[in-house]
Design brief:
- It is a single chain.
- By secondary structure, the chain is mainly beta.
- The protein has a domain at 2-85: Ubiquitin-like (UB roll) (Roll).
- The protein is built from 1 helix and 5 strands, in the order ββαβββ.
- Strands 1, 2, 3, 4 and 5 form a 5-stranded mixed beta sheet that branches.
- A hairpin with a 2-residue loop joins β1 (2-7) and β2.
- The protein is globular.
- The N and C termini lie far apart (70 Å).
Length: 125
């Protein structure tokens, strides 16, 4: 079960029978990218595969064997993630318009719940 990943001007075969986090870290090392970049993959139609929010899920849930995917970096805006393609496309590939995605609910910062009133016993009672 293998896919091809395009990054920079390279094409790298990757086994997808492992967790998404392992794949993204392997690609990060192969592409020599900084650990602060938020990485993900996009298909040729610009659909982001959302591996990053699913690091412990097997990649076979999101990727299809034999396909080519393109490395993208995410920038977080208040209401969405926008993506930049990190692959040099060939003339045959044309252009890829990577679509923005909404933040995952667990990514959105929430206010902590209010603390319950203290029910401590008063001294002397």
């Amino acid at each position: 079960m293998q896919i091809n990943i395009r990054f920079n001007d390279q094409n790298k075969p990757i086994n997808i029978n492992c967790k998404c986090g392992v794949i993204l870290e392997h690609i990060r090392k192969c592409a020599n990218l900084d650990s602060s970049l938020l990485l993900d993959l996009s298909d040729k139609d610009g659909n982001v595969k959302l591996l990053r929010p699913n690091l412990t899920t097997y990649a076979t849930q999101f990727l299809s064997a034999g396909e080519t995917y393109y490395l993208v970096s995410a920038t977080e805006d208040p209401k969405q993630y926008t993506y930049k393609l990190l692959a040099t496309l060939t003339p045959e590939e044309g252009t890829i318009d990577v679509k923005p995605t909404k933040p995952d609910k667990k990514d959105v910062a929430k206010k902590p719940p209010p603390k319950p009133a203290s029910r401590a016993k008063k001294p002397g009672k």
